[in-house]
TrEMBL record:
Residue ranges occupied by any CBS domain in the UniProt entry: 93-155
Stored Gene3D superfamilies: CBS-domain
Matches recorded under PANTHER family: CBS DOMAIN-CONTAINING PROTEIN, CBS DOMAIN-CONTAINING PROTEIN CBSX3, MITOCHONDRIAL
Keywords: CBS domain
Organism: Streptomyces flavotricini
InterPro entries documented for this protein: CBS_dom, CBS_dom_sf, Diverse_CBS-Domain
Xref: CDD domains: CBS_pair_bac
Pfam families in alphabetical order: CBS (PF00571)
Name of this chain's protein: CBS domain-containing protein
Length: 155
């Protein structure tokens, strides 16, 4: 099966969207990773949710995990203050996760290899035409596993 057939709709944000809106999208849709596109539809980053959570944890807590035990939910508002007024591009980790993407004709094994190499649970399927780039959808690790189980007769 090819990428066009495996691709499913997936919520995404652009680099210009507000960081707080990206967090809401991730939370409301229970997403494993955040898909970020540039304004023209070019994939910008795919950031696992765990790395976005990391962006909310203050550096001093990362350096001394014992502090996390004494800071409770009453201080949660201070964790999200870092989002205020920032765009997605300004907020996501400095070592942004390069987007994994393929064309619509890529095969399942090609997608699996890319996913394994990049350590990101999403591969965007991008179609290019005279008008530019268009997100066809996303192949998630879960949907790829379902497909591979079905093809292998284990589904």
């Amino acid at each position: 099966m090819i990428a066009r057939d495996l691709a499913e709709p997936y919520p995404h944000v652009t680099t210009d969207d507000q960081a707080v809106d990206a967090v809401r999208l991730l939370a409301e849709h229970d997403l494993a990773a955040l898909l970020v596109l540039e304004r023209d539809g070019t994939p910008y980053a795919v950031v696992p949710g765990s790395q976005l959570v990391r962006q909310l944890v203050p550096e001093y807590v990362m350096e001394d995990p014992l502090l996390a035990a004494v800071i409770d939910d009453r201080h949660a508002d201070s964790l999200t203050e870092a989002l205020a007024g920032k765009t997605v591009a300004q907020w996501i980790p400095a070592r942004a996760f390069k987007p994994a993407f393929v064309g619509p004709e890529a095969g399942a094994l090609q997608i699996a290899a890319l996913m394994a190499r990049t350590h990101v649970p999403l591969v965007a399927v991008i179609d290019r035409d005279d008008d530019g780039r268009r997100l066809v959808g996303v192949v998630s690790a879960a949907s790829l596993m379902r497909h591979l189980l079905d093809v292998g007769g284990q589904g």
